[in-house]
Amino acid sequence: MSDLKDPRVLFAAERTLLAWNRTSLSFIAFGFLIERAGLLLHALAPEAVGAINAVLAFWIGILFILLGAFAAVWSSRQFRALLRTLTPAEFPEGYGFRWGLVVNMIVAFLGTVLVAALFVGRV
């Protein structure tokens, strides 16, 4: 695809990957906040917050966390696909371009671990 012999293409793709990483982390944090806010509201005013609202907050939070994990995996997949289109001249000497992939996959893994922990904590 690319024949520019310019490492700026790689750097632009990496910036995009890291932007998706921040988005993934935001989804995961927002999901955790929603899930915990439902528990907090239920603990502070159980008569005002019905059981259905606590369950709804739990599931909405879980879905946001899973969305964050999915976004991390999908953006890593897209970045890997782009890396395959670049020529060796577009990779700077000694530059560790795969680190962003590793970080994204760790975020995805920890997001799924968080979902599992929330399910175990709920039982």
How are the secondary structure elements laid out?
Blueprint: H1 8-44, H2 51-85, H3 99-122
In total, the number of strands is 0
**Biggest β-sheet, characterized?**
none
Low-confidence stretches: none
Estimated helix fraction: over 70%
CA(first)-CA(last) distance: 51 Å
What coarse outline follows from CA principal-axis ratios? rod-shaped
Strand content: under 5%
Number of H- or I-type helical stretches: 3
Average pLDDT, rounded to a whole number, is 88
Order of helices and strands: HHH
Assembly state: single chain
Q: Supply the helix-strand structural class.
A: mainly alpha
Rg, alpha carbons: 19 Å
Short note summarizing the structure:
With 123 residues, the chain is an all-alpha fold. The protein contains three helices and no strands.
Could you list some keywords that capture this structure?
123 residues, mainly alpha, 0% strand
How would you describe this protein?
The structure is a single chain. The chain is an all-alpha fold and 123 residues long. It has 3 helices and no strands. The longest helix is centred in the first third of the chain and has 37 residues, at 8-44. The protein starts with 7 loop residues before the first helix and ends with a helix. The relative contact order is 0.19. The model has no long low-confidence stretch (mean pLDDT 88).
